[in-house]
Amino acid sequence: xxxxxxxxxxxxxxxxxxxxxxxxxxxxxxxxxTKAVLAEPQxxxxxxxxxxxxxxxxxIENLERLRRHFPNVPLMLLRLPGLSQIEDTVRLAEVSLNxxxxxxxxxxxxxxxxxxxxxxxxxxxLGDLREGIWAENLPExxxxxxxxxxxxxxxxxxxxxxxxxxxxxxxxxxxxVELAGELEKGCGLHLKVISGGNSASLPLLVxxxxxxxxxxxxxxxxxxxxxETVKRQLLPGADPDAFVLRAEVxxxxxxxxxxxxxxxxxxxxxxPEFEDEGWRRRAILALGRQDVPPExxxxxxxxxxxxxxxSDHLILDLTGAxxxxxxxxxxxxxxxxGLLGAMTSPYVHKRFVNTRSQNPEFxxxxxxxxxxxxxxxxxxx
Length: 381
Ligand SMILES: *Cc1c(COP(=O)(O)O)cnc(C)c1O
Description:
Layout lengths: L3 E5 H17 L3 E5 L7 H9 L4 E4 L2 H10 L5 E3 L8 H7 L2 E4 L2 H14 L3 E8 L7 E2 L3 H9 L4 E7 L12 H18 L5 E3 L6 H5 L9 E4 L1 H4 L18 E14 L22 E7 L11 E3 L5 E5 L4 E4 L11 E6 L1 H9 L4 E5 L28
Parallel strand pairs: 1-17, 2-3, 2-10, 3-4, 4-5, 5-6, 6-7, 6-8, 8-9
Antiparallel strand pairs: 1-11, 11-12, 11-16, 12-15, 13-16, 14-15
Helix pairs in contact: 1-2, 4-5
The structure holds pyridoxal-5'-phosphate (PLP).
């Protein structure tokens, strides 16, 4: 069924191995983040086969899914637990990321109630302005948390390049390591983990410049799409197309590039603007915003260009590829937003394959691929 996202589990596994080998050279533990793929068990399984030891997700539902399929794999809750999620957090996650005293207290009580010890990583905001306590308030929080029964303050963590786009570097990550040192001296805490961010920390790792003292990274995009997230460069040796989106052409006709008539609002309340490129061969695909955000995809065939999309249609410039027409199936590479959208949409069919080609770089863009039958059985990990 189209549209579909073709997920090459061999490539995901390969990318996970690529990240792991980079990390292991530097003594870094990799926690694999599955939220962009809704903790899809086939994908999580591929990541575990590569040798990853811990999985992380932002959502309780996803942790539930992971727990069901992988009962013995330690799990981390990535998003700060809500006060309404305390029971689930302690039940499903060995570790959670935290910044609120009230929540830590609730976790402590619940851990006691469930007869568990729950590990927490205290999040520090190093300037990106998403989650985390401001550094000067950290010692007080750490001291309080340290004395809470049922909790182990396992370490410090930070998240950068998410909201504010702040790039991880020696200065901000150095500050995290320094804070940990101060806490160990001042409060007698033993901080086992210093969790130095997400795929935006990978460029430092590639260059061998990741701040000493950082010993954990939480990696999603780096594994799934094989890219770091500062400049979105491919990691050395990684495979760029573990995920490929495919959709069908419904109409292919020559039309102008500027609409005819007075222009008001479009379907989404925006007033669109158009550049006059004359008459073009325009294709309409059965792929819309309800499937994937058009900003998150790019045609694998470089002759094609996206004009725009509505809820159920993608409009594309087909002029450069005269052999394509109604019934042609076009392929797209996905960026993070595209992957997230396609995986989340119930209209995009998920197809799993196990075919890492030897030479992804040299495969022709227009080659029509024959995929083996879907293998729905969960492979051992
Ligand atoms: C999403 C997320 C990650 C992973 O981010 P990637 O850019 O996909 O590597 C890591 N840490 C936290 C707290 C997150 O929310």
